[in-house]
Model the fold of this input.
Amino acid sequence: MDINESQKSDAELIELAKAYPESFGLLMKRYQIPLFHYIRRLTQLPKEDVEDLLQEVFLKIYQKLN
Done:
């Protein structure tokens, strides 16, 4: 599977992740850093807690893809 994630929209990546669950990592890669900083700014939690929360966020997103 040759995927150039920078050229795909979020909607395209979601559809791809529905068909190929391993490609959900492309969405995670795209949003991990911005979401990390957003959560950190909102909560002022330590880095480890933000990472745990971010993991839970991505898990919820993956579970709700459909």
